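Tutorial sheet, problem 5. The three components below are modelled jointly, 731 residues in total.
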Amino acid sequence: MRRFITACTLGIAALLMPTIAWATTVSSTQLIEDPALWDGRTVTFAGEAVGEAMTRGDDVWLHLNDDAYVVGTIEQGMPPSGYNSGQAVVATPELAAAVTVFGDHRHHGDIVEVTGVFNAACPEHSGDMDLHVTSLRVLQPGTAVEDPPDAGKLTLLATTALAAMVAYAAFALRRAAD
Amino acid sequence: MLRPSVDDHRVVGLYTGKIVSGVGLLMIVPLVTALVFREWDTAIDFGIGLTVCLAVGLGLQALCRTSDELQRRHGLVVVSASWILATALGAIPLYLSGHMGSYLDAVFDVMSGLTTTGLYLMQDLDHVSNGLNMWRFILTFAGGQGIVVIALTFLFKGVGGGLYHLYSGEGKEDRLLPNVVHTARVIWLISLGWLAVGTTALTIGALALGQAPVRAFLHSLWVFMGAFSTGGFAPQSYNTFWYHSLAFEIMCIIIFVAGSLNFAVHWAVWTGERSELRRNVETRSFAVTLGIFTLIAAIGLARSGVYTDALPLVRKTFYLLISGHTTTGFGTVYSRALVTQWGPLAMLAIIGTMVIGASSCSTAGGIKGIRIAIITKAFVQEARRMLGPDSAVVTSRYHHLKNRVLQDATIRSVLLITVAFLTLHAIVTMAGVLAGYPFIEAAFDGVSAASNTGLSCGVVSPSMPGALKAVYVVAMWLGRMEFLAVFALFGWLWSVVRGR
Amino acid sequence: MGAGSQRRGARDALPTAEQVLTLTTGLVTEAAFAVGLMAACSIVIVLVLLAGG
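Model answer (structure tokens):
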């Protein structure tokens, strides 16, 4: 009997292990560069929520970017630091509700950490590479982003507008002369 | 070669000025978009771009007043000169946005847009303004019809024979109507007709997928423009993988297949000759090569074992294959997944489709179906000639808008362009390998640029060597112009220096 | 350049109901062409899968 209990305990532990103990923290680059290695494993992944949450029945699609712009967008003064890079994740509406600010031109989105099962080619979502979220928390709330016009550009605009007017005057004069 | 006279330069300058002004006026669309969304900084960028284009365009027209007619020797040079100026000036708002690593990167993106390639070097795409995104898609939509076609539609009057040389110089030969200005308008009618239907359908889809109304509309408009112009730009860095929807993908496929059809075939079908779609040598050639490469890619993917079920296999394989074959460049997998999941055989199948491309006189790139069909027919004809009696006269026929007899002169010009394309593909591949990329990856991205497709397996990135970016810019340009206009420009410059 | 399309030409006048119907049918035909390609290639892919690659 004791043996049976031990076996059961070990069995349950083994089932739980991947979700609890082996939730390795990964980057989107790691996942994309070696999908076979991570396929079916439980991973923890963090990134900036961008765009929107797309709700379809019990599934909500979120896109989390873990690129250089997690720190801040170009409009916030971040220098161009490469492409965006991220991972599409599927959560339940209840979990996804925690994410409220999504990154776009006017926002730096919530930084979200998710744990879930990574699928290199998810059979449930017709082969998409995704991550089925089991837990989600917002590490850092998103912020609004200002993009005020800068004075240097306004001066440049004044100059080029003047040049365009001069060109138009010359064009109109030549045409009138013909 | 004859040295061009001052009047020749004036003619080139005048028409180039008109076209550049036209491209400048296109910036009104993103400018208004930026104002509507109160993106003031973006609006200023486009204000600067617009005024510079007008200054250059109107300035050229003021400097180059002439009563001389546009002739064939001018037409090709005008087209090339306009594309260079439009690219250099169109890059201004992109560069000013701060999202580009360098001016060369901005030029790369504009050339990619205008040539409907779809590769991009813009950084942090997921945070760009609506105005800036609008410009990317206006570039690709306008480039698909041809910037000369736009100028012909709106800025030129009359029926002047010289205008045809402008039109044909941009890689379109079929005249839909006897008058080239009317032809240009019909091209716009077809594009705008599809725009209305396509954008509406996609918007309904996007709303169902969970996008908010304004974003659903903008995304749909942009995805339509990216698809119909067989461009491949998408509003998010995830490309069309963003939508995770079979229905949305099917709509995209319908739109980019439509975009890859010859405008003359569209016009025939739209005026009641629906059998043209079935009988045209180009649509037939497209169907056959698509089938062959689908088979090869499916074998490659089945072996790699990435997609074990039928639906995912069909969905992913077909989408990328047809995206490559129509030279669109939309993807529903991550770029790197082509290397890490798909493997060399499936990648080679896509390279094959990109090399061939879709229809002539469409928005698509590549060698084009009609040339593949003519070369195939020429081979069969040659075999029949060898096997037949000495006295036999062997002729071949094909149907392209009307029944035609295969002429040796046609075969010659078709082979010339095909050889030029294959050489270009070899050169860009070699350039990629020289820059240190693995052969298959260099071939994939190189061919993608030269065939104006836009699929990438990861070679194209802001950190790639500047020289390779420049090679790709030239390759995109050569591929879109089908060489002749570019050669004409170099010939013109040469004759200025060394002409008699 | 199809003889038929030349005859019909793009007139600047407003299109008639019949023309609109022809245009719409044309557009639907083109969409059907794309769907047809999709269906045919899907069969090829499924056959490859059944044959075990």
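Marking note: The longest strand of chain B covers residues 397-400. Full credit if you identified this.
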